[in-house]
Design brief:
Bound molecules: aspartic acid
CATH class of the largest domain: Alpha Beta
Order of helices and strands: EHEHHHHEHEEEHEEHHEEEHEEHHEHEEH
Largest sheet: 8 strands, mixed
CATH architecture of the largest domain: 3-Layer(aba) Sandwich
CATH superfamily of the largest domain: Acetylglutamate kinase-like
CATH topology of the largest domain: Carbamate kinase
Helix content: 25-40%
Length: about 450
């Protein structure tokens, strides 16, 4: 067996956390490739090293004195080195970083040093080889990830090592400069490495024991999801469940490698398994509930809309021309509604209204603001009758007015629109009916 193990920033925030990580890695021979993030927050209100690096680099760009800021970043690493009693000095590395900042080498390079330096410490502490991600992870000229080149180079290079540490979050551009993924991108690195070395499992270690059925800010101590499919997770993550970077699913998905979310502070917990498909039933009919506030519905009416060819295309064209992506487009016989993010739409609303009138000639347009969308997701819905009935009965009992219903053709999810003010209560009602009452 071969496992790729990625550790998040809070798992590597100080020497004590590093010790836990080493114990986890050493507990299983199979844990052969380690992907560290940069040191995260040590306590609430602390600053992540990545954020310190961005700030420090901006000071350098502005021509401000950044030496003392860089020293406080170095102090974070020196504390870890000292706490682990290592004979390691990052003096030379910091000289290079300082020189790079002076010639404003780039924000991406600056941010990537968080993972790079943590990787050096981790490799030293574990006695593993250190492989710089810049040498095995590549981007194309247009900034997109170059999977072909990466697959080739990464596989050949890592085949040489039995065990290695590869820093997360970055790779290199065709000209050799450093480029990072978006924030939280070490998850993507872990997934790419897992695919490249044909791992059996990609373990992603963080500070929670897996995905929760719903937001703990709304439900106290919601249960952990034991097993979830990639597709279910996609449905939940676009609605805001953020334990894992959403792009990190794609590389492992190509090879059907399962992801196991684990808690560094509670390694005894089994965590959540993210798999391609499973015959394991989820404990409840639903796997998870997620949602987001802040949507707007643009209701468009036109008599005989149903028989007018091209009406929908014309309407959606206006959104495209204004650079606005839509979330859902439920329709009736003479009505079409477009759901968009309010903050993306608000500045362009009048242009959109005028644009729709010009292109599609509707009878009326009405905008409804402050709506929330809730996704109830579950592979179990397909084979269970009455799920929708139960959801809407629960909402009716809670006196919640449902504004919109959309069931994806996959029967994997039901999307419900409510007002922002009903959002929390709606989630509670759905959770209670499926999880607490176990209906
Ligand atoms: N350190 C980076 C960030 O804070 C990447 C990561 O942690 O995955 O976004």
């Amino acid at each position: 067996m071969k496992k790729v193990v990625k550790f998040g920033g809070s798992s590597l925030a100080n020497a004590q956390q590093f010790r836990k990580v080493a114990e986890i890695v050493q507990a299983e021979e199979d844990r052969r490739f380690v992907i560290p993030s940069a040191p995260g927050k040590r306590f609430p209100g602390d600053t992540k090293v990545t954020d310190m690096l961005y700030e420090c680099y901006h000071m350098a760009e502005e021509g401000e004195e950044f030496g003392s800021m860089l020293q406080s970043i170095k102090a974070r690493y020196d504390d870890i080195i000292k706490g682990l009693e290592l004979e390691l000095s990052l003096e030379e590395e910091f000289k290079k970083i300082e020189a790079g900042f002076k010639k404003t080498i780039g924000e991406n390079y600056a941010a990537s040093r968080g993972e790079y330096l943590n990787g050096i410490i981790m490799a030293d502490y574990l006695g593993f080889a250190f492989v710089d991600a810049a040498e095995i992870i590549f981007f194309k000229e247009d900034g997109s990830f170059d999977s072909e080149k990466t697959e080739k180079v990464l596989a050949a290079r890592l085949a040489k090592y039995d065990r290695a540490v590869i820093p997360g979050f970055y790779g290199s551009m065709p000209d050799g400069s450093i480029k990072t993924f978006s924030r939280g991108g070490s998850d993507i690195t872990g997934s790419i490495v897992a695919q490249g070395v044909h791992a059996d499992v990609y373990e992603n270690w963080t500070d929670v024991s897996g995905f929760l059925i719903t937001d703990p800010g709304i439900i106290e101590n919601p249960e952990v999801i034991e097993t979830i499919t990639y597709r279910e997770l996609r449905e939940l993550s676009y609605m805001g469940a953020t334990v894992l970077h959403e792009e990190s699913i794609f590389p492992v998905r190509k090879e059907g490698i399962p992801i196991n979310i684990r808690n560094t502070n509670k390694p005894e917990d089994a965590g959540t398994w993210i798999v391609e498909s499973t015959c394991q039933k989820s404990k409840y009919v639903i796997t998870g509930i997620a949602g987001k506030k802040g949507f707007c519905a643009i209701n468009i009416e036109k008599d005989m809309m149903n028989s007018e060819i091209g009406f929908g295309r014309k309407v959606l064209n206006v959104f495209e021309d204004n650079g606005i992506s839509f979330e859902h487009v439920p329709s009736g016989i003479d009505t079409l509604t477009v759901f968009v993010h309010q903050d993306e739409f608000i500045d362009k609303e009048q242009q959109v209204v005028t644009g729709i009138h010009r292109l599609a000639r509707p009878d009326a347009i009405d905008i409804e603001a402050d709506l929330a969308l809730i996704a109830v997701v579950g592979r179990g819905m397909k084979s269970t009758r009455g799920t929708a009935g139960r959801i809407f009965a629960a909402l009716a009992h809670a006196n919640i007015n449902v504004k919109m219903i959309d069931q994806g053709s996959s029967e994997l999810n039901i999307i419900i629109g409510v007002t922002n003010s009903d959002f929390e209560e709606a989630i509670r009602a759905i959770y209670n009916i499926f999880v607490v009452a176990r209906l």
